[in-house]
Amino acid sequence: IIGHGSHIVSNYEWMDGKFVIYSIVNFVFNSNGGDFEKKGVPPLAYVAKLFIHESAIRLRLYPILVHNPTTFWQPRPATEEQFDELLNRCCPVEESEPFQTENKGYLEFML
Questions:
Q1: Which of 84, 104, 94 lies closest to 13 in space, CA to CA?
Q2: Does residue 37 contact residue 31 with C-beta atoms inside 8 Å?
Q3: How many CB atoms neighbour CB 87 within 10 A?
Q4: Residue 59: how many CB atoms within 10 A of its CB?
Q5: Per-residue pLDDT tens digits for 5-37
Q6: Fewer CB within 10 Å: C terminus or N terminus of the chain?
Q7: Angle 85-7-26 (CA atoms, 0-180°, nearest 5)?
Q8: Residue 42: helix, strand or coil by DSSP?
Q9: Residues 6+ apart with CB under 8 A from 78
Q10: What is the dihedral of CA 83, 87, 93, 94, to 10 degrees?
Q11: DSSP 35
């Protein structure tokens, strides 16, 4: 389950054997920044990409910057520092996560 539209990246978890991402944000329309400052989170979103194979499904989450005053309504890839801030402040990756690609600029999960 992949949620979107809340303007703030939310955490993810396994629920009843299903992977749930509560919000990857609104990357098409971005934000003027107020929601990010109010919540104290970085102005980032995720682009989700599914890899569907006969034997497995993988999900990659690519972080992007979605702060209109900075991007002028053109989302762009997040820097490594911005991605680290996102993971540390609102979406920490647990040791028990199914799979995480470190230092590659994205998170990856086996579903």
A1: 94
A2: no
A3: 17
A4: 21
A5: 777 787 788 888 888 888 888 756 666 767 777
A6: N
A7: 105
A8: coil
A9: 44, 63, 64, 65, 86, 105
A10: 150
A11: H
The string of pLDDT tens digits covering residues 28-81 is 666 676 777 787 778 888 889 999 999 988 899 899 998 888 888 888 999 989
For 4, other C-beta atoms within 10 Å of its C-beta total 17
Tokens matching residue 50: 């599914």
CB 83 within 8 A of CB 105: yes
How far apart are the C-alpha atoms of 83 and 9, rounded to whole Å? 12
Q: Which residues are 95's β-sheet partners?
A: none
Instruction: Say which residue the tokens 């911005």 belong to.
Output: 82
Q: What is the pTM of this model?
A: 0.82
Question: Nearest 5°: phi and psi at 45?
Answer: -140, 180
Which pair of structure tokens corresponds to residue 67? 């702060």
Tokens 């086996």, residue?
110
Distance in angstroms (rounded) separating the CA atoms of residues 6 and 2: 12
